[in-house]
Amino acid sequence: MKSLLTLFLAFVTVATFAQKDFQGKATYMSKTTMDMSRFGDQMSEQQKKQIMARMKNFLEKTYTLSFNKNESSFKEEVKLDAPGTSGPRWGASNGQGSIYKNLQDREMIEDVEQFSKRFLVVEPMEQPKWELGTESKKIGQYTVYKATMTTVDTKIDWGGIFRRGRRNQPKDSTKTEDKEAPKMLNVTAWYTPQIPVSSGPESYWGLPGLILELNADRTTMLCTEIVINPSEPVEIEKPKKGKKVSREEYNKIIKVKTEELKERFQNRRRGGGRGF
Fold it and tell me: b or e along 220-258 (b: 16 or more beta carbons within 10 Å of the residue's beta carbon)?
């Protein structure tokens, strides 16, 4: 009964403070583990180490979430390359992308640049189906509560660009089109009612307090610093430059371009050039 009362008070806290001029910034550290089996079984340990070194910018990132009671903007912080670094650094950011969320208008916009083109991926914000638990812990000075959900992963699987597909694989003639089964994500979030903002890192939101830790698939995001009501006003800009597309349209565009890229590298390999 005490735990249920605590969760009820959490909702009351958000409803009360949401009426006030409340804003801030939160810094998140993101780490992703990688399944090296996708690169094939014949890769040497030295090659695996080289790939992990080049993938570091993709596997370990720092983000800033700027927020007020209605809006938020989640943006990656730019890291300068270390002296002497050479070769491609997969997953490196140009520092211009962001994920904008408007809780009042229920609109989410991902500002992203791929293949030298800028896109505004617009999605409606449907209420996430979180299951609130009673488990709690401390993150810094904040008490956080556990929430879980299972959802469809609609993002591009960038690891697929490195997978070795089976060439000339016969298609099932009984199927009108080849469709992959949707990938499901088990998501665990830890939120705090002490910061009454229904937002969080990446595209996640919908809890009675700011999400300070999030675990989804192989990625963990942890809040390392929070500044509430800073002396300088928090500026949140809605992305406007780029081609507006839905998530489905964007995924189709990127998959086509990715297949073209894979074919180009395969041709280079067959011609004696260097691959990835």
Answer: bbbbeebeeeeeeebebeebeebeebebeebbebbeeeb
Under 8 Å between Cβ of 211 and 187: no
Q: Is the pLDDT of residue 208 over 80?
A: yes
Question: In 3-state terms, the chain is what percent helix, strand and coil (to 5)?
Answer: 20, 35, 45
Concatenated DSSP letters of 40-55: -TT--HHHHHHHHHHT
Choose among 105, 103, 121: nearest CA to 113: 121
Give 138's strand partners. 143
The HSE-up count of residue 69 (CA atoms within 13 Å, CB side) is 10
Number of Cβ atoms within 10 Å of the Cβ of 104: 8
Per-residue pLDDT, averaged over 193-206, amounts to: 96
Under 8 Å between Cβ of 276 and 265: yes
Q: 92-137, pLDDT tens digit by residue?
A: 444 458 999 999 999 999 999 988 899 999 999 999 999 999 999 9
Q: Give the whole-angstrom CA distance, residue 31 versus residue 213.
A: 12
User: What are 35's two structure tokens?
Assistant: 């399944």
